[in-house]
Amino acid sequence: RETKTAILRKLLSRKSGADIAALQSATGWQPHSVRAALSGFRKAGYTIGRSVLAKPDNEPVYRITSSPEGTR
Q1: Under DSSP, is residue 70 helix (H, G, I), strand (E, B) or coil?
Q2: Which residues pair with 63 in a beta bridge?
């Protein structure tokens, strides 16, 4: 069984990244829990990029831009 953090890591590793709503949908978590997981990734050494695309809702999209040494 795949963990929820592994699911988040997979979604964030995509070229297109993922917004909070997509991460919520994949995990069943509340927005604050998704943001806490993003913070945990940062503490673990991941670099998380944040960009606002020209989408109608202007929600930020998050993406892992680099991983800690020896992972991925």
Answers
A1: coil
A2: 49
Residues 59, 49: Cα–Cα separation, whole Å:
14
Note the residue count of the chain. 72
Evaluate whether 66 touches 13 at the Cβ level (below 8 Å). no
Can you name the residues that pair with 19 across neighbouring β-strands?
61
How confident is the prediction along the chain (72 residues), in pLDDT tens digits per residue? 899 999 999 999 999 999 999 999 999 999 999 999 999 999 999 999 999 876 667 789 999 999 987 665
Q: By C-alpha distance, which of 28, 34, 29, 42 is closest to 59?
A: 34
pTM of this prediction? Answer: 0.85
**Is there a contact between 25 and 31 (Cβ–Cβ < 8 Å)?**
no
Helix, strand, coil percentages for the chain (3-state, nearest 5): 45, 20, 35
